[in-house]
Fold:
Amino acid sequence: MKISIITICFNAGAYLEEALNSFFSQDYNNKELVIIDGGSTDKTLDILNRYKSQFGYFVSEKDNGLYDALNKGIKNSTGDIIGILHADDLLAYPQVLSDVANQLIITGADSLYADLNYVKQDGKTIHRNWISGNYEKGKFAKGWMPPHPTFFAKKELFEKYGLYNTSFKQAADYELMHRFLHKHLVSVTYLAKVISLMRVGGKSNVSIKNRLNANKEDYLAWKINNLKLPFGFRLIKPLSKLAQFFRS
Structure:
């Protein structure tokens, strides 16, 4: 199976090259890197132009935010499987894509998620772990979600069940995974390995205000999908994150 990795970026020159090299070092051959740049004005384009012959698709133009950019990447990818590599994140080791492909083949699942380490700005020092655990129906109602950078899904799922909902500004990743796994019962497998390194300071976590807004959108994800909202969900969701923090 061919795996497409989508990297979206905007003025990401500080860490972008590290992210690219973590993809190029993958030992899985049937892969492509799709680059969606939002019209960067720093050194990002200089970096991208050095590597553009190795991209499956590359465009630099204004977009309507990160989820619009991700949708653009999905539409222009040619792989059977879609994954995400943010411009300041890293694939954790050179066999990540091989492990993802093998797990999907062995289990026959249509999607996959794994574990993630939050790391400091050096890209190495672990800040905390996100150990996902096995998925079973109903876990979303308990505040659970898989780490988005570790989520891989067949492209046909996006064609069948829809892309990222761009009306969401901070939690479209939650809404999409919730829609796929909880609403449409897409088959999923858990790869119990840390496959992604995510630098601390993501958009939804950079302030209390942003975290509260993201929590409102988590709530909205249930309503727009016509699903019964679990009792106390607005409290359950943030408490589940706190519990995960202490477990790590």
